Amino acid sequence: MQLSLNSFLPLSLRVRLRPIAFIAALLIAWQIAVSRSPVHILPGPSEVVGGIVDLIRHGLLLKYIVASLFRVTWGFLLAACLAIPIGLHVGWHRRAEMALNPLIQIFRPISPLAWIPIAILWLGVGDLSSIFLIFLGCFFPLLLTAINAVQNVPAVHANVARNFGLSPAAVVYRVLYPAVVPQLIVGLRITLGVAWLVVVAAEMIAVNSGLGFLIVDARNAGNRYDLVVAGMVIIGLIGLLLDLGMRSLERVKSLRWSYSED
Amino acid sequence: MAASANKLPETDAPIKLSADHVGMVFQRDGKTTQVLRDVNLQVAPGEFVCILGPSGCGKSTLLSTMAGFLSPSSGEVKIDGELVTGPSPRRIFVFQERGVFPWLTVEGNIAFGLFKLSRLERDRRIAYYVKLVGLEGFEKAYPSELSGGMKQRLEVARALAVNPDMLFLDEPFGALDSITRLTMRRELLRIWEAERNTIIFVTHDIDEAVQLADRVAVMSDRPATIQQIVTIDIPHPRDLSSPRYLELRNGIFDQLGLAHKV
Description:
- The complex is a heterodimer.
- Chain A is flat.
- Chain A has one domain: MetI-like fold.
- By secondary structure, chain A is an all-alpha fold.
- In chain A, helix 4 crosses helix 10 and helix 9 packs antiparallel against helix 11.
- Chain B folds into two domains: 184 residues, Rossmann fold; 66 residues, no CATH class.
- In chain B, the strands form two sheets. A six-stranded mixed β-sheet of chain B has the order 6-7-8-3-9-10, sandwiched between helices.
- The chains are: A mainly alpha, B alpha/beta.
- At the A-B interface, helix 8, helix 9 and helix 12 of A face loops of B.
């Protein structure tokens, strides 16, 4: 059987099928383990699928996904729009970096979740609070990425630009900007993952919709663990899709230079 | 055997560049280091001068000073009778291949300094200099797809495309293997004979200096000054086993206090 399958399928397809086959095997093992277990400690895959179908039937799945994505989008975009320009300026001017660095290093290790009480005090229970928490979770990583990206621009490149007589504005958009974009994309990709982590946590406390709320609510209202695990699966799948989307940006040819070098 | 005066061979010849009593002192960690001491050099238009000296003697500092990237602590550099106060597109500094922009194609790199020209003229120059440095067929390639020698030729093409009067080359072939280096020297001479820019070429390679230059300025150790200027009175193409070549080369060996045996 194995031999004949190998000879029928091309290599690339076999490589792609491998992770799917592995996941399928795990699901089967999970189902068997759950059905043989005397105590009910985890819903099996079939119950989880049932839970997802339940959510779809009640029109909740799409609603919760949209609610979570809405908060992530706003928090992430606001952080990117503020942190990247600030970071680029701070990185470019050495004195600004020296002045701001201690402050950044103090705020950075504070988990965005530590801000939850203050977020609720300032912004109340609702979308604004969770957007604010996502913003905080994204702002500092993006700020540091932007500062580092500017500082990694080789001095040679700035000198070449001066030598060819570019105006200071032209140095920024013809040399500085293209030089930092690949590093920024990596930073944005990692930070989007952070945003997705934070939204789930924020929704457990500050709002009454979204995938994080779904998990807490399913437990509180009748120990529906099939819905809890369904929520986890959906969160994982959407996280995967977000990462794939950001990775496809890295493959744009004119941005790819820094990955293919050396 | 060789002219040791720092003046030009013909006294009435016009002067392209003159360095007068140039000294350079660096302050680092409270210590003062004198890098250059009383450097005097005059270069004629269209002349090819090599600055030769051991690694770390300050010859790159001298070149950066002549190009306007550094200001001398004492003395002055004049080009066409005018004091040098900064870099200018009239005189382009060629770094080791590190200077090419990895996010631009071969065409894009050559076009970098041509932003003031019409599109038609720009395309004409790109085509001309791509051909001159032998990069036809690679117009759309990114630097990561090029070899070290090709990147070096690209950087020379980008420099030449703005029609500079002068080129400053800082050990441009230092990172290349010895076979490519020989080819590149021949290419540089071919290009120089076509364009007749004034070239100041820094190297620590005695053979390279004697193969390329009209005159070789031999630097001393720190604080560096010009010990001697050797006129290489052999027409191009130079026979590397001719008695005169060996005589001049051995003279510089002696000047630098090097043994003739390994």
